[in-house]
Amino acid sequence: MFPTADPSQTPSIESSLFARLTDAEAARVRSAARSVHKPSGGVFFMQGDPADAVYQIESGRVRLSQVTTEGQQILLRVIGPGTVFGAIALAGVDAYPVTAEAAEGCTVLVWPRTALLGLIEQMPKLAINAIQLMAGHVQEFQDRFREMATQRVERRLARTLLRLASQTGRKTEEGVLIDLALTRQDLAEMTGTTLYTVSRILSQWESQGLVRSGRERVVIRHPHGLVKIAEDLGESE
Amino acid sequence: MFPTADPSQTPSIESSLFARLTDAEAARVRSAARSVHKPSGGVFFMQGDPADAVYQIESGRVRLSQVTTEGQQILLRVIGPGTVFGAIALAGVDAYPVTAEAAEGCTVLVWPRTALLGLIEQMPKLAINAIQLMAGHVQEFQDRFREMATQRVERRLARTLLRLASQTGRKTEEGVLIDLALTRQDLAEMTGTTLYTVSRILSQWESQGLVRSGRERVVIRHPHGLVKIAEDLGESE
DNA sequence: GGCTTACTTTGTGGAAGAGCAAAGAAGAAA
DNA sequence: TTTCTTCTTTGCTCTTCCACAAAGTAAGCC
Q: How far apart (Å, rounded) are the C-alpha atoms in residues A26 and A31?
């Protein structure tokens, strides 16, 4: 009942590169990578850097953001263990379109682009996995684009929180805690609004008992209420 | 100077499935498809249909649209010859997330999902091509998402028109004619606004001599002016 | 503790754009 | 031709949301 069965809600498949590989194959893929650690704030790559490696998170969280030509920043996603990023390198694009930085201490696997391409040549299942990965992203951004085009801020914010909760939420006795140091500014960038509007909406929700929020912290006390807002169920249960 | 060198402008690579295949390989891939014709308005697949085939346009134009749970429609893209669509079927997703219909009489190549997957197993280059295809879409929608989140309607509309012009525009003595029967409603759905706002902006541009617009018709008379709006170059140059 | 810094809240004003209504074109059909 | 339908324009109102300002609050550091 919580992340809902709404078809438009991004399913967050996060099919790893290793899906449906045999143990031996997985080991082989794994051994082509090296493990790297970054402290909080460390940068994996910057927007514009040559796209020459693919990453998978072992532990920690990574922020993917983008800066517009006018200098406005937006936060595309915050991802956690198991998630692949930088897969665009497989497509022979010259530069990463986003910046990836460690939101906390992170350990990641890194494959040099050419190594992974070589493996794909020999292991079609790996290619299918990569395609699935990409397809998931296409869907996610198509959905978010549509959301952005058709829905109002309050609803988008509700969705952002629900997405974050389902990805990295942790149950506490108070509710689902979003276990990331996200400022109002960050939430605003993810939702496509301003920090002021985020603050106002959260205050309103707090007065309704839906959430409890503090500095860089949001606890969802009544997920069902947020889902109602996210899907505009009006007053029907 | 026209479609611009702005990095955020979607490059529209449209790398076909056939890129970098030898003639023999291309012929083999080609022979796994059957050619199908649809009259204008014909539907290739509906949002929600089982995703069991991949398409490439030989001639004509195809509209890809999506309907939200509330019944709002948006027009994601209008694509032309050479463009692949329905590639999501490769990812083993159960249903197409969009509806594809012929905007005019269309001839397309159709690959059954399983056939193409079989070919991919034997032809790694094909897999890479598919990955490239997907990666292009990820970038496109990431860009459009960012655009939507950070930019105002006027600029988004300018970009929409420039994109359409570069894809399907035809030079006339009056300017670049967008050679598609797109209503104000269609443009609004692509841009993420209302038909009223589109109409107003076009009127304004017309009075400035930038475009000439009529029923389901837009001629860009002064592309550079639109580019200026799309990129907010102010009065420079 | 007090000081500094970063984050958050809230008030106010204003602009962008949505939404409705109604009238005007442009095709299509009869 | 006239009629019908669809698309477009424009005026008006109203909501949403942005933007700035200023004060409040929490965290880190000396």
A: 8
